[in-house]
Write a structure and sequence with these properties.
This protein is of the alpha/beta class. Helix content is 47%, strand content 14%. A 5-stranded mixed beta sheet has the order 1-4-2-3-5, with helices on both faces.
Length: 159
Amino acid sequence: MTLKKLHGQEPVPKSHDRVQGAGKALHELLLSAQRCSCLTAGVYESAKLMNVDSDNVAFCVLATDEEDEGDVALQIHFTLIQAFCCGNDIDVVRVNDVPKLAAIVGPSEESGEPQDLHCILITNPNKDGWKDPGLEKLNKFCEERRNVNDWVPTITLPE
């Protein structure tokens, strides 16, 4: 008799499967947030929003590429944003593929120009909160990662 049969539960998925599931959930969340106009892109735009209305921020995505790793100013901004998010119970993830993120989010609706996607905030569309399945999956993923001291997990977006 296996532990699965003994307790009647499914086995815990492997770490790789969880990360892939989180990537898919993030993809779905970004599309959903964009449709609801609940997406703020840009380091400075995100900082302004967190300063004015942090209670409505539901999730934060920090994105870099290899070329951004040497950008000291960007890394300082990331550190400050992460600290703010942790202090306000906002889950944060990192994505290491800005072009994939750009393919999902697309250009700015106002200008049609490429957006600064180094920081993306997802906000609640109303005071009651947002019941998005992708957001719920990501919140659970982040909680699981915090339990193993991974405070800002890195997510790989699906192809």
